[in-house]
C-alpha cells in the first residue's frame, strides 16, 4: 500500500554561528533555539514519515521533557524514525522538502542536503527534492525571527507502487 505523510516545523533564531539543516551544518549569523539541534528540515521530515505510517508525531517519540534528547542530533532521530518505517516493510518513493525563510540561502547547500537526506532514508538523491522560498519579508520568517520547513513523503512497498496491488 502507498502511504503519504506531511510535516511542518518551526524554530526561532538565537545565539550561535551556524544552523543544522537537513543534517548539514550551514554557517549563519545566528543559531536555532531548540531542545535538540533545531534542524527544522529533518523535524518536518520525521513528522511526515511518522504521519505516513500512522505513528503520531516527533514530540511523542522524542519528548522535550526528556534529557536524553537534549541537544540531540536530528540525523540520529531521523534514522530512528526511518527504522520504524522499514519495520513496516516500506521504502521511500519520494520526499519533497521546502525551507521557508530569508536566510541562510539554501541554494549553495542544496545538493549537499539532498545527498545527506537521501543517505538517511536509504534512497537515491533523485528521490529527494529540496525547495526554498521566502515569505517576501512578511511574517516571522520574513523578519528573520526563525526558520520553517514543510515536508511531504510518499512511502511504497519494495518493488514500487505496482507491487501495492499484489
Ligand atoms: Zn523541531
Offer a quick outline of the entry.
With 166 residues, this protein is α+β, with helices and mostly antiparallel strands.
Tally of strands: 7
Task: Give unreliable regions as ranges.
Answer: none
CATH class: Alpha Beta
List cofactors, ions and other ligands: zinc ion
In CATH, the architecture is 2-Layer Sandwich
Please state the average pLDDT score: 94
Radius of gyration: 16 Å
**By helix and strand content, what is the structural category?**
alpha+beta
Tell me, what's the shape? globular
| Count of helix runs | 5
- Work out the count of structural domains: 1
- Largest beta-sheet details: 5 strands, mixed
Spatial strand order of the main sheet:
4-1-7-5-6
Tell me what the structure shows.
There is one protein chain. The protein is α+β, with helices and mostly antiparallel strands. It has a single domain (3-165), classed as 2-C-methyl-D-erythritol 2,4-cyclodiphosphate synthase (60s Ribosomal Protein L30, Chain: A). It has five helices and seven strands, in the order ββββαααβαβαβ. Strands 4-1-7-5-6 form a five-stranded mixed β-sheet. Strands 2-3 form a two-stranded antiparallel ribbon. A hairpin with a 2-residue loop joins β2 (18-21) and β3 (24-27). α1 runs parallel beside α3 (74-87). The longest helix has 14 residues, at 74-87. It is globular and about 45 Å long. The mean pLDDT is 94. The structure holds zinc ion (ZN).
Amino acid at each position: 500500500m502507498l502511504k503519504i505523510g506531511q510535516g511542518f516545523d518551526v524554530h526561532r533564531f538565537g545565539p550561535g554561528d551556524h544552523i543544522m539543516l537537513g543534517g548539514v551544518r550551514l554557517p549563519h549569523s545566528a543559531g536555532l533555539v531548540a531542545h535538540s539541534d533545531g534542524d527544522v528540515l529533518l523535524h518536518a521530515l520525521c513528522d511526515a514519515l511518522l504521519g505516513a505510517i500512522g505513528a503520531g508525531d516527533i514530540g511523542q517519540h522524542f519528548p522535550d521533557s526528556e534529557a536524553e534528547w537534549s541537544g540531540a542530533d536530528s540525523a540520529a532521530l531521523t534514522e530512528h524514525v526511518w527504522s520504524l518505517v522499514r519495520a513496516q516493510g516500506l521504502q521511500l518513493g519520494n520526499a519533497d522538502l521546502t525551507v521557508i525563510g530569508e536566510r541562510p540561502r539554501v541554494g549553495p547547500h542544496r545538493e549537499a542536503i539532498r545527498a545527506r537526506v537521501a543517505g538517511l532514508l536509504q534512497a537515491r538523491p533523485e528521490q529527494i527534492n529540496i525547495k526554498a522560498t521566502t515569505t517576501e519579508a512578511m511574517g516571522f520568517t520574513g523578519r528573520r525571527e526563525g526558520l520553517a520547513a514543510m515536508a511531504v513523503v510518499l512511502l511504497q512497498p519494495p518493488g514500487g507502487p505496482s507491487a501495492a496491488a499484489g
